[in-house]
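Fig. S4 source data, part A: sequence.
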Amino acid sequence: MALDWVPRAPKDEIFNHRITSDERLQRTEPPRTTYELKPLLAPDGNEVKDLYVAWVTLDNPAQYNSYTLDMLAATAVAFEKASHDPSVVAVIFTGAGDRALCTGGNVVEYSEHYVMRPMDCQEYMSVYWRVFDEVWTSPKPFIRRVNGMSIGGGEEISGVCDLSIAADTATFGQVGPLHGSTAMGGACQFKSVVMTMEDAMWNAVSCEQWSAYKMFRKNYIYKVVPVLKQDGKFIRNPEVTTDKWVENGEIVYGEFKPGEERKKARELARSLPKDFSLLDKACMDIAWTFANLYPQQVAVSYSLLRAQKKIAYERTKAEIIWWWAANAGAYGEFDMGMSAFNTKKVTGSTDIDVIKLRQMLAKGHPYDEEMFEAVMPKPKQQ
């Protein structure tokens, strides 16, 4: 069976991996990263003259705010811009719309361009590192405003922020091992520092999604606020248990409700309007707190506190670039995972047959075109 249904970029396509100044922030349509200065607000809602909060927004809602190379580079530029603006007291990093903060790197780019281009994979990671470096070296606090799904690389790149404020409809999780990748862009590093080792082992690898309340319970985010309104009043996410801590000897706070109960709760949640005003206020109130502290002392404090996450990341940084370059070879697991995801409209599935993959490996079969074709989902009959 020919593989001409698997899209690939032209052989002579070249991406620009250099980070330029404000040019990347001038895009007028998604996919893009936007930069906006919003006046600092006092708790009473009044604007503070000449002081601002920089909002950096991943704007690609059609693809759940997954970041393209251009968006990634623009994020680094935006972080640098905010860091060197003395009128900025804090940076808020978020996603456009109400469905996702970010679901990771752009699968179309990964599948069609970066597979079989190991040198470009190395270049890409240099841009990714730049985003992190801009936070590590910034004198400004970075606040992660989690407005929806924070998944895969989206959770990782936003996880570099200092404090996370989440809508209680947000979900968190890693999906790499389910789609031919590894949570090597921050999850495997940060979570083993902040969570218990056992929780990190499960959360970064199992591909199980956790609620915002469970992430709060596991000490990975700072605050959770409601965004759903019923009869004009805010209510807690009905899909998640928030009114009790223990049931039958098990901790249930933050867990998704079981079976039919969750199904009904999901239907209710989807029927209710979302209002992010409490989320926005929580982020702005934190910025206000920092604005009333000596700026140099805030800068040094965060530089010291960030060191633990930074050391964890830097300890594995060198290996990451070579791993991705090697893993992006033709017909390997990354190719399988990204190509399966990218061809969902053709096959109806995002998943390969992992059991068959393991069975073939157990018999000594190499990663080659024959294996690729055997485990990939097949195009639907026309």
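Fig. S4 source data, part B ends here. Residues 175 and 207 are 5 Å apart (CA to CA).
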